[in-house]
Write a structure and sequence with these properties.
β1, α3 and β2 form a beta-alpha-beta unit. Strands 2-1-3-4-5 form a 5-stranded mixed beta sheet, with helices on both faces. It has 2 domains: 129 residues, abc type-2 transporter like fold; 205 residues, no CATH class. With 388 residues, the chain is of the alpha/beta class. The chain has 15 helices and 5 strands. About 2% of the residues have low confidence.
């Protein structure tokens, strides 16, 4: 057979009416382009939740606060009266940036004394931490230059000279939870979690569908028992894999770990692996063959890394992206995992664990019903063919 004959044969196979190959080859990149484009459509991180603590309450401090309100980088969610209120909002992740204006702010400026604005930022996600630091520097520099110029002009100095000789406001930065802004701490736990869910899909993806071709194997056993029997061993092994990969990244790659959160991590990993195994069994129950049982879950799960909020914050996504992310397992796991490792707590931990266990339970129920229905249908077909 000539090379040209082989090429024509393969092209017919790719573009034949019964072949999904061409649809997959062209459709998936286009589909992912749309998905990823929607997630990154805002181009930059905007509207970072911000809390203001104004201890001066003067025209100067209110002018500075207005600069933050006017900036599209920030969304001022609260102006508090005490340091305790500020710390609480940061602790609960209701605010990711805090701006503290010290007492005697305006007075010190008038006296020519340096006055420091303190910016506190949660750096579990370095995306908005870097955005907050750079934009705060611009705001403070602009405010400081304008204020210093007016101050020295009042002393009869020329504007150009005044602008270059005074900068009465300084910026202090306090980076919380990931003070070195280490990229390993930021990305590695979630990336490996993505690898774990792919591994689970590859292992559990064929567990149900292969039983359709061997109905006599578990004859007399209920569909519920079979599904649970498939679920439990895979789930327990997946939990072990989760704990093993955590040990590796903590011991060998120096990912930050706060003591006292082992059980939080354990239940988070248990809920995540339960949901992913349940998704795998669901797809395995509804597909036609083992090839589809591996392909379909992977097509579904691959955008999850981006939409999880691991790299690009969920609140910076568009409406479509936020809705789509609600169906991704990593959405309920990645941020909580990073918060536990870096900060020692996660405000949304219990909620995320409950969502994952509830979602997995519903999927397992559907899997049992689908598996039972298809088993009965195939048995009836087999009996009918035998009678003929």
């Amino acid at each position: 057979m000539k090379l040209s004959d082989i090429i024509r044969s393969e092209l017919r196979a790719l573009f034949g009416s019964k072949s999904p190959a061409a649809v997959l080859l062209f459709g998936i990149p286009i589909l992912y382009s749309i998905f990823f484009g929607c997630a990154y459509s805002s181009n930059v991180v905007k509207y970072v939740p911000t809390v203001i603590y104004d201890q001066d309450q003067t025209t100067a401090s209110r002018t500075l606060i207005q600069a933050y309100i006017d900036s599209e980088k920030y969304e001022v969610v609260a102006q508090v009266r005490t340091q305790e209120e500020l710390e609480q909002l940061l602790h609960e992740n209701k605010a990711l940036v805090a701006v503290s204006i010290p007492p005697k702010f305006a007075q010190n400026i008038k006296l020519g004394m340096a006055s420091e604005i303190l910016i506190q930022t949660n750096s579990t996600n370095v995306m908005f931490a870097n955005a907050a630091i750079s934009s705060s520097q611009e705001i403070i520099q602009t405010f400081s230059a304008a204020t210093g110029q007016k101050l020295l002009e009042a002393l009869n100095q020329m504007p150009a000279q005044a602008l270059h000789t005074a900068a009465p406001v300084k910026l202090g930065i306090r980076i919380l939870n990931n003070p070195t802004i280490a990229y390993t701490n930021f990305m590695l736990p979630g990336l490996v979690a993505n690898g774990l869910q792919i591994a689970i899909l590859l292992v559990a993806g064929t567990l149900i569908v292969k039983e359709y071709g061997n109905l006599s194997r578990w004859q007399g056993t209920s569909s519920t028992t079979i599904v649970i029997g498939k679920l439990l061993p895979c789930w327990l092994c997946a939990i072990g894999s989760f704990l093993a990969y955590l040990a590796v990244i903590i011991l060998f790659f120096n990912v930050s770990y706060r003591g006292g959160v082992f059980f939080d991590l354990f239940f988070l990993g248990a809920a995540f692996t339960f949901l992913v195994v349940s998704i795998s069994l669901f797809f395995s129950a509804i597909v036609r063959n083992e090839v589809e049982a591996l392909q379909m879950p992977l097509l579904y799960i691959m955008p999850g890394l981006l939409y999880s909020g691991l790299s690009w914050p969920a609140w910076a996504m568009g409406d479509f992206a936020r809705v789509f992310s609600a169906f991704m397992p990593l959405t309920y796991m990645a941020d909580s995992l990073r918060d536990l490792l870096l900060a020692g707590y996660s405000p949304a931990l219990l909620q995320n664990i409950l969502i994952m266990f509830a979602g997995g339970s519903v999927l397992n129920l559907i899997t049992m019903l689908v598996f039972n229905h298809r088993r009965k249908k195939l048995r009836f077909k087999t009996v009918k063919e035998a009678a003929l």
